[in-house]
Amino acid sequence: MSAGAVYPRILLNDFHALWNEVGGDATQAFQRVGSSAWFILGEEVAAFEQALARVWGLDHAVGVASGLDALEISLRVLGCGPGDRVLTTPLSAFATTLAILKTGAIPVFADTTDQGLLDLAACRRILAQSPGIRFLVPVHLYGVPLDLNELSRLREEFGLAVVEDCAQSILATWEGRPAGSVGDLAATSFYPTKNLGAMGDAGAILTNDEKLAARAREFRDYGQSGRYNHVHVGHNSRLDELHAAILRDACLPRLAGWTQRRREVANQYQRGIQNSEIRLSATPAEALRSGHLFPVFVSPDQRDALLAHLESWGIQGAIHYPVAIPDQPVMADYPHELPTGCTTARTLCRSVVSLPINPYLTDEQVAEVIAAVNAWRGAR
Ligand SMILES: *Cc1c(COP(=O)(O)O)cnc(C)c1O
Q1: Quick check: 359 and 327 in contact, CB under 8 A?
Q2: At 7, is the pLDDT very low, low, confident or very high (cuts 50, 70, 90)?
Q3: Distances (CA, A) of 107 to 61, 100, 133, 326
Q4: Which pairing describes strands 203-207 and 185-189: parallel, antiparallel, or unpaired?
Q5: Ligand 1 touching residue 188 (CB < 6 A)
Q6: Of all residues in the chain, what percent carry a pLDDT higher than 70?
Q7: Which residues contact 212 (CB under 8 A, 6 or more apart)?
Q8: How far apart are CA 70 and CA 62, in angstroms?
Q9: Do 294 and 142 meet the contact criterion of CB atoms below 8 Å apart?
């Protein structure tokens, strides 16, 4: 923090407020699991999976150890392996591409739109020119859903296997349909900062396909199809009973309310922020966002000045994400393709600032963020 800066009062995430709200229920869940004397793959995991699938509006959920594992296991369940080419976005958490690399497959990056979302028109052009691409990993980044109708058409027309990265998009919908419902499988994360955050690492795979769900259950547990019968080179990626219990009792029942509050905050920002030097992200009329992140875009040479300005008002900002995935150092050692370049994504990486958005922000705090953003003038 620079000299004279104010300690942030308006936070990106507020885990103390979270504990104040859920601590009682989480403690009860802990006592129940402890006294059950059963800690791995038991009734708690099964009950959470059912509750999650119901809330999501899909038939099956499979709890795993993280969002990264949910993505990697989903790809492996669909047969993705060494040499396969997987179309994806250059702007996301690195985990999206890491999951592809871990299967031995080759990421093919399409550029993003000026909103930072995977450009589906660019995907269509790339797919038309590269018949060898059989997999697609789209990301509903920031909790803004991609056009599910177009995703579904791409899947059909090009015969793709699709894993939707829904780590940021739980409860987001397109024309009322949930993000995660048009791919073969959807992967999500319960990393603490996510909309449904655990008190540690956890994730899940969702699908309407019973056979794929069964395979995912095998892959998460050493590749066993039954006890001591190993049919895949699987993972140890089991959601534990304790996290399942905390998620089901303390967090999942509150998710709708939390999401509603996130959407209110997003709408207040959308209406209140009026500054010609700041571009807001637009949500298409068909989309209902999850309110996971609220990115704004400024000219690349002004980004650090905006962050410093927010900091001086006691407001925490963040960058999602500072580096395009193909530009990460490790990518130099792994084959990947950039058929149309990723100029837009690279520019956004230097322009994006995330404003605080979480269920615990008060209307006064939201008004303060709006005032701070509106008061900002870029250095000239
Ligand atoms: C958080 C996140 C992941 C990875 O989830 P982990 O649980 O941290 O492994 C993957 N993709 C996106 C878009 C994410 O935001």
Answers
A1: no
A2: confident
A3: 26, 7, 10, 9
A4: antiparallel
A5: no
A6: 98
A7: 77, 78, 184, 185
A8: 9
A9: yes
* Ligand 1 neighbourhood includes 167 CB (under 6 angstroms): yes
Q: Quick one: tokens of 313?
A: 């008002």
What is the residue whose two structure tokens read 């009026």?
Answer: 274
* 191 CA closest ligand 1 atom index: 7
**Residue type, position 340, single letter:** T
CB hemisphere CA count around 325 (13 angstroms)? 27
Probe residue for ligand 1, chosen from 96, 163, 239 as the CB with the greatest number of ligand atoms within 8 Å: 96
DSSP character at residue 251: I
Instruction: Work out the burial of residue 114: count CB atoms within 10 Å of its CB; fewer than 13 is exposed, 13-18 middle, 19 or more buried.
Output: middle
Q: pLDDT tens digits, residue range 319-335?
A: 999 999 999 999 999 99
302 lines ligand 1 (CB under 6 A): no
Q: Measured in angstroms, how far is the CA atom of residue 95 from the centroid of ligand 1?
A: 6
Please report which residue ranges of 37-116 form alpha helices under DSSP H.
Answer: 43-56, 67-77, 94-102
Residue 189 CB–ligand 1 contact under 6 Å: yes
Q: How far is CA 9 from CA 154, 218, 315, in A?
A: 45, 46, 6
User: How far is it, in rounded angstroms, from Cα 189 to Cα 165?
Assistant: 9
Contact 258, 359 (CB under 8 A): yes
Report which of 328, 374, 335, 373 is spatially closest to residue 349, judged by C-alpha positions. Answer: 328
Tokens of 250: 């303390």
Confidence grade of residue 1 (pLDDT, cut at 50, 70, 90): very low
Q: Please choose from 146, 168, 190, 290 the residue to mutate so as to test ligand 1's pocket, defined by most ligand atoms within 8 A of CB.
A: 168
Does the CB atom of residue 183 touch ligand 1 within 6 A?
Answer: no
Q: Using an 8 Å Cβ cutoff, are 168 and 293 in contact?
A: yes
Q: How far apart are CA 259 and CA 265, in angstroms?
A: 10
